[in-house]
Structures are given as structure tokens and as C-alpha cells.
């Protein structure tokens, strides 16, 4: 059994050990970044977002009830500011991306489709492909 690097002695949490824990938690068990988020296409991202909303947010909505192009304000989702903050938190934990303040001020978060486009644009594999 592999011993966790993220279990410092009680009372001895340092900035360095905390940073290591955050990096370790974001990696797969092999020590490499997970590839499950880097090779996704838009329909897979929309599906993941629907599952995230249905399973991780307390909205009383089932996966099957969420249309692919669902609006966050209509279509039964009706996300309030707290639900939207939780959604963004789950989104950043699920995908290796950061949501910027500019994203919140634009129309990026009006629908699942627009959020999926943002995720697709920011995924590391897409960035590397665009650079080549």
C-alpha cells in the first residue's frame, strides 16, 4: 500500500507540504496528470457538466431532465448565486482549468453549451494542439 505524501505530522503543516498535497491530489495515482479530461470533446464535456449539476449540486434535478443546451436561468435549473459558485468550484476541481473574473462578467455562464465551449478552449491538451 502506497503511503500518502499528504499526511504531515500533526501540527506541522507547512506551506510547502500543503502545496505538495494540492498538486498530488490533482494527479492520477501514477503521478501523471489525469488524461480523462484532456482528450474530451464538446459532447463529453456537456455530459460531464450535466452529471456534475445532477449529482453534486443540491438542485433536485435528475441528469435525464437536463437538456444539452440548458440555460442556467431557465429549463428548470434556475441556479442562484450560491449554486453558481458551487458549480464553478466543482467545475474547477473536475477540469484542470481556472475560471477568470472576465468569464463571470461575460455571457460564458448563460448555458451548458457556452460553459462547455470555455472548458474545451481551456483544456491543456487543446492549448498544446493549438500551439503546434
Automatic annotation (TrEMBL):
InterPro entries referenced in this protein's UniProt entry, alphabetically: ACP-like_sf (IPR036736), PP-bd_ACP (IPR009081)
Name recorded for this polypeptide: Carrier domain-containing protein
Taxonomic source organism: Xanthomonas sacchari
Domain Carrier: 43-123
Any matching Pfam family: PP-binding
Domain of life: Bacteria
Amino acid at each position: 500500500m502506497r503511503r500518502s505524501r499528504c499526511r504531515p505530522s500533526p501540527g506541522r503543516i507547512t506551506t510547502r507540504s500543503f502545496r505538495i498535497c494540492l498538486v498530488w491530489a490533482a494527479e492520477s495515482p501514477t503521478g501523471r496528470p489525469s488524461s480523462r479530461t484532456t482528450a474530451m470533446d464538446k459532447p463529453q464535456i456537456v455530459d460531464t457538466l450535466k452529471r456534475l449539476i445532477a449529482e453534486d449540486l443540491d438542485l433536485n434535478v435528475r441528469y435525464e431532465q437536463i437538456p444539452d443546451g440548458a440555460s442556467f436561468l431557465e429549463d428548470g435549473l434556475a441556479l442562484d448565486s450560491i449554486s453558481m459558485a458551487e458549480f464553478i468550484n466543482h467545475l474547477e476541481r473536475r477540469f484542470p482549468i481556472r475560471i477568470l473574473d472576465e468569464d463571470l462578467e461575460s455571457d460564458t455562464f448563460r448555458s451548458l453549451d457556452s460553459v462547455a465551449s470555455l472548458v474545451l478552449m481551456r483544456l491543456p491538451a487543446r492549448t498544446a494542439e493549438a500551439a503546434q
